[in-house]
Amino acid sequence: RHPRIVFVSTNPNGGLLAERLLGGSFLQGHHYQNGIQYINLGYLPGGKTGVLPFAQNPAAIKSLDFNNAPIWISPVLQGIGQAFPSAMLWASEAHAEGLPYAAARVPRATLVQMDARHMPFDAEFDVIGAFDVIEHITEDEAVLAELHRAVRPGGGVVLTVPQHPSLWSEFDVRAHHVRRYTQSDLAQKLARSGFEIVKMTSF
User: Fold this and answer.
1) Cβ distance 165 to 180 under 8 Å?
2) How far is it, in rounded angstroms, from Cα 103 to Cα 106?
3) What is the DSSP letter of 62?
4) Packing angle between helix 183-192 and helix 140-150, nearest 10 degrees?
């Protein structure tokens, strides 16, 4: 009588995309049906291999929100905190409204609002993760240069970006992407920013 459509994403940005899709007018022109409950469960870690355990036991996999807030903050930092309990964790967000969600997931992390093009750090971190970040920023090479400056000598940076410009779609527009990358384009930008590529792969 009251069917439900559930959105689950294997991409860290997918939860936010679904939230914008559900909250906007996009569905109104695409066979939106009154009475259907649309539920956004956000990001499901583990990629494609995480789908089967989730289908078998959703309650054991799904991260619960708080105060019924949308689950769109990626649990990457939460996973890192669990894997490395003694590590000192920092996280940044361009928009202040995202910080309380991250703080609820990883209370021990130091959280800052920051423009990635102008980082207030020099040789500060052993490893920096930028997961689906630079594709949102016009000056992506400025961000890469700042990442290189902020990481300690001998440290590393882990990046994820959307690839294949030929796959550009309405979802990229709604996710506020500036670009998708080819492997050679990203490799050239990393080299110009001073990085040595240890591994580059698709997933």
Assistant:
1) yes
2) 5
3) P
4) 50
Interacting residues of 180 by C-beta distance below 8 A, sequence separation 6+: 135, 161, 162, 163, 164, 165, 167, 168, 172
Q: Tell me how far apart the alpha carbons of residues 42 and 73 are, in angstroms, rounded to a whole number.
A: 8
What are the structure tokens assigned to 184, written together?
Answer: 């050679």
Through-space distance between the first and last CA atoms of the chain, rounded to whole angstroms:
38
What dihedral do alpha carbons 113, 117, 122, 128 form, nearest 10°? Answer: 70
The pLDDT tens digits for 58-106 are: 655 544 333 333 343 445 777 777 778 888 888 888 877 777 877 777 7
User: What tokens does 89 get?
Assistant: 């964790």
Tokens of 185: 């384009």
> Token pair of 160, please?
């994820």
Token pair for residue 19? Answer: 């939230």
Question: Which parts of the chain have pLDDT scores under 70?
Answer: 1-4, 10-75
Q: Report d(CA 82, CA 130) in Å as an integer.
A: 18
Report yes or no: 144 and 154 within 8 Å, Cβ to Cβ: no
